[in-house]
Amino acid sequence: MSAGFSEMDATESKSQPRPFSIKLWPPSQNTRQMLVVRVTDNLTTKSIFTQKYGSLSKEEAEENAKKIEDVAFAIANEHYEKEPDGDGSSAVQLYAKECSKQILEVLKRGPSGKEDKEALVSEEVSAPRDTMFDISKGARSFIEAKEAEETLEPLKEPGNSYTKICFSNRSFGLEAARVAEPILASIKNQLKEVDLSDFIAGRPEAEALEVMNIFSTALEGSEGGVALSEALDTCTHLKKLDLRDNMFGVEAGVALSKALSKYAGLTEVYLSYLNLEDEGAMAIARALKESAPSLEVLDMAGNDITAEAAPIVAACIAEKQHLTKLNLAENELKDEGAIQINEGVDEVKEMFEKFPDRLGSFDENDPEGGDDEEESGEGEGDEHELETKLEKLEVNKEE
C-alpha cells in the first residue's frame, strides 16, 4: 500500500502545471440515471417510431429503461476493459448505440399488454450478469461520503452477482469508509476477489488506520485464510512463504501459526498487511520462535501490532541468529514497543552490522509523525464531457 506522494512530489505538483486529461469512462451513477430518463422519454413521447409501433406507459417505460441501460453499460464496459482506447470515447459511443438499438427492440414489441404482461423486455435485452465491480479507472483521487453513496449503489441491489470488487486508486476518507462498511458486510459472503490497493493513499495516518479497520471489520470472516492455513499445514518443506496483502484477520493468523510451527526449513516469511493484530502476531511469533531456525527474512508490516505483542515478537527475533531482514513498519508499536523489539535486535546486532541495508523500516510506529498530503482533482470536467456526448440520444432508424 502506498502512503501517498512524497513532500517533493507535492511541491512539484504545485509548482508545475498538471497535464490535462479527460476520462470519459466509466460514467457516474448520476450520468447513468440521466440516460435512464432519456430512454424513458424515447419510449413514451411522440416520434415516428412510437407512431408506428405505439408508446409505452410511463411505469412500463421506466422499468424497461433501467434494463436497457444496464445491458448497454455491461456491453460498453466489457468493450472498454478488453480494448481500452485511452479516454473511453469508443465505449461511450457503444453505450449510446446499444441503448438506441434496445429502445427500438422494445418499441417493436409494443406494450406488454398486447401479448404478455410479464414480458417487459425481449430476450435480446436480457442483461449479462456482471460479476466485476471496478471503480479504479481514471486518475487517482479521493472519494468522500456523498460520492461513495452514489458510486457503490449497484452493490446494494438485491440479487446482484458481483464476486469481484476493485477499489484500487480511489482513496477512501473516514466518512466514505463508513458508507462502504454495511454495503461490503452485506455481500462479503459472495465475494471471491477484493482489490483494495492504494485505497488510503494520501490520507493522514490516524485516518488511514481507522479506514483500514473499518474495511477489515466489514470483510471479516477470513474463511479463505483459515482454509489456506489449514492446507499449508501439510507443506512442511516450504522455504519461502509470501502471503502479503490479504484479508486474513486474527482467526486465520492463529490457524497459520499452527502450520508454521512445523516448518523447519523456512528462510523467508512475508506476512505484511494481513490484519493479524496482536493475537495473530503473537501466535505466529511464538510458532516461529520454536521453528524455522534458519529464518533470514521476517516481514510483518501493517498488522496493527501494538506494544502488547512486542515482548513476544522480540523473543522470536532473539532466537533467529541468521536473520538479515526485519520489517515492522506501519504498526502501532510506538516508543515502548519499538524499544522492546530493539532489545531483541541487539542480540543479533552483529549480523545487522554486516548487512546495514537489510534492516527494514520501523516507520510510522512512533507516536508523532507527519501526515502526507495528496492533491486530487485530476479529471475535473470528465463528467460534463461525458454527459455532453450522451445529450442527444437518438433511436437508430430501421434498415
UniProtKB/TrEMBL annotation:
It comes from the Eukaryota. This is Uncharacterized protein. It comes from Populus alba (White poplar). The lineage of its organism: Eukaryota, Viridiplantae, Streptophyta, Embryophyta, Tracheophyta.
